[in-house]
Amino acid sequence: MQKSIIITGACQHNLKNVSVEIPRDKFVVITGISGSGKSSLAFDTIYAEGQRKYVESLSAYARQFLEQMQKPDVEHIEGLPPTIAIEQRSSTSNPRSTVATTTEIYDYCRVLFARAGTPHCWICGKPISSQHASQIVDSIMSLPQDSKIQICAPLIRGQKGEHKDIFTTIQREGFVRVRVDDVVLDIKNLPKLDKNKKHDIAAVVDRLIIKDTIRIRLADSIETALKLGEGVVVIMTQEPGDDKKNGGIGGWKDIVYSEKFACDEHPQASLEELSPRLFSFNSPYGACPSCDGLGTILEFDEDLIVPDKNLSLEEGALDAWRKGGKRMNIFYGRMIGKFCRDFGITKSLPFEKIPADIQKILMHGTDEETEKKFGTYFEGVIPNLTKRWRNTSSEYVKARLHGFLSEQHCQTCNGTRLRKEATAVKISGKSINEITQMCVEESQKFFEQLQFDAEKTLIAAQPLKEIKARLKFLADVGLGYLTLDRRSGTLSGGEAQRIRLATQVGSGLVGCCYVLDEPTIGLHRRDNDRLLGILRSLTDIGNTVLVVEHDEDVINSADYVIDIGPAAGEHGGEVVAKGSVKDICDCPRSLTGDYLSGRKQIALPIKRRKIKMSRCIEIKGAAENNLKNIDVRFPLAAFVCITGVSGSGKSTLVTEILLKGLKRKLYNCGEKPGKHKNILGTGQIDKVIEIDQSPIGKTPRSNPITYTGVFDLIRQLFAKTREAKIRGYNPGRFSFNIKGGRCEHCQGQGTKRIEMHFLPDVYVICQQCKGTRYNPETLQITYKGKSIADVLDMRVDDALKFFSNFPKIVRLLKTLSDVGLGYMQLGQPSTTLSGGEAQRIKLSAELGKVSTGNTMYILDEPTTGLHFADIHNLLNVLQRLCDLGNTVVVIEHNLDVIKIADYIIDLGPEGGQAGGQIIAAGRPEEIINIKASYTGRYLKKYLTA
Q1: The domain spanning residue 168 has which CATH number?
Q2: What are the Cα distances from residue 69, in Å, to 56, 759, 830?
Q3: Which of 131, 263, 303, 447 shows the smallest number of beta carbons within 10 Å?
Q4: Measured at the alpha carbon of residue 652, what is the angle toward residues 646 and 656, in degrees to the nearest 5?
Q5: DSSP string spanning 437-456?
Q6: What pTM did the predictor assign?
Q7: 606-644 pLDDT, tens per residue?
């Protein structure tokens, strides 16, 4: 077998005919400055070619169902094994996806509960056992006299098809009625079923009225139904008087009886045979009927309806009733006036001083008890809004009312997502939802201590083995603090990547090439060794591990390092150095080598800013997730760093409580903040801005200068040229997004997509505009000899010189250059930008605005994807924001960032339930002296070096 992956002539994106040899079955790190071409080599060349070769080996029929990758721009790759990419992108936003479902732990738990679980009555909690025919008869005979019943034998449950053979069998057996999708029909007058929809079909065995004389006939019919329904019978019941409901067709209820499981005292608490689908919240058989298995529902939120409780009803405390037309305001004004008279309060009373019972009536309306007490009826604000929401056909009204809705726990299932029948099945006293509410480490202990009798031990052995293995891998990659029911969409990019890594490690594949993108994201320095051990285990069994990484520990642990550079964009794309870490350090052209060897470093600040706790934002009683009812103060006009091991509560504190809480206070935003008592000092800031690494646009039409607003100024400049004025062109003429100046053949895209069906789509340069995006008439307008298309092709640094006579344009372009993006083309599509580049464009847009000095900037791990040199640039920008009097709050693990902070808040001591406390708070020099702080231990080396 070949010992190396040999790449010849790679020219993908900015790669400059790169040829490199990568040793197989080794731990290889690709590093380099942001935008230098690391991902172009690792993902867009090596991974893409591996995937393409695999897909092309499949049949044409199979290929049409798979996402096909374009052939990378590379001359030849030799010795490439099958490739698997584990990227840093956030996991799916699907609310049904959780940690347990992503890792398949939940699938094995469903099998375990279906085969080894013990059903319980959800009413009295007693274990339930099987029912005999005589017990079923006794239960039915206990129904009220003269109740009507229909005895049904279920034959088809949730299966697609027309089921003609089933209907033929039912008719042949002598039955004259059939129940199809909850409707009883005559067997001779059946409609044609939609074969693409799932159906429930049952034979109606008998129809009776409960009387003392029917016992023998009932017993015969029950035995027939049980035999036909394979041990299950459904009794449709209609008690006396119920037949008058809903126009004579209502009042029917189902009682399911099974020869397997039912409660003696509560016959309605019965289950069919336990199966894995009963425990699936993605199946109608297991999902809670109220929330459809989501665990949450959208409901009107009292805090959004009354955002300022200091206001009185007269002053418009009810925000949802205040915003409307003149007639609506008059109507609601009269309604509020009548409410105040009826319930004995004044309209001028602040909302928070209205008695709690009256507040409840105002929000939710009167019930029988309160109607008797006060002698009047009131609909309630929330029922009124709910009615309007459901009945309106106006998109405007829907959009306005949506601002008062928030996601809340489903009251039917209490957020478990499952039916009561599923949560009543237990193993060792725990239901499946109670297990998924545990963190990885807690569930590990539970499954290790789990014991069964001899028969169930044999049945449970295989699913238990798989569950334990997956839990171990999750713990090994530093995710022991995550709860199994945590939504995938709430995970950071690093957490999502490590979950996928754990899943891959569990698969035990050999002879593959794993391509990873910064696996250390979100990991505290303390947890790096465990992760490196996992990566080493992959190479030990015969895999190649290719990692795009900037972390010093990871680079120093590599068998082989490839440094891409020397700079970013068109000035990068070369292999600057390769070999061992020593080889990289000894290379004078390697910027990575400069920082690893200590020739360059991020220096400590000469003087830290003075911290005045009299000027701070203070959170009182933060108790969301694992936070332990803590009070936290964030000093203003300073660089504040939030640290702590993974899962200690950093993101919960900053993103869920601080950010969302400030948004609600400052902008009356609809997002509900995490659990806390109060946020004090919000009057000292006027804006809160989150700057993350999400893309600046989802289409190639977005680019750096459209995002920062420079393009508007440039288009205005072109519209003021002499020729443009003669032709009557306005600034819109120079936009490639609207008709007029753009090339209509490609609609301003510059490229045309050619669908190849069984092959990947091909993008070709538009033949009409030659990739310029504009029509010939627009391109005839020039400024200093350059057309608008020429300007879009300019680099930022070149554009600074070109537009040097226009201060407004220069000011905005200068901010792009200041954040280290001088190499970037003005018209570079946003879809080609890295996360670090996107974040710096957002920072430059903020720097380009007129500062009030009262803004709080919140960043969650801004160093993700950044090289040592990029971090240097980023820190200079953040320090500039603080120098203007603003506050920067950063969640970070990178010690080069932590060491320059003015103030550190360290959470811990561990992750999950063992975290959520403030371990240390103060200047870096104070933190290193606190023994309980893991951050302090690792930071000491950086402050004393």
Answers
A1: 3.30.190.20
A2: 10, 9, 20
A3: 303
A4: 150
A5: TSBHHHHHHHHHS----HHH
A6: 0.76
A7: 999 999 999 999 999 999 989 999 999 999 999 999 999
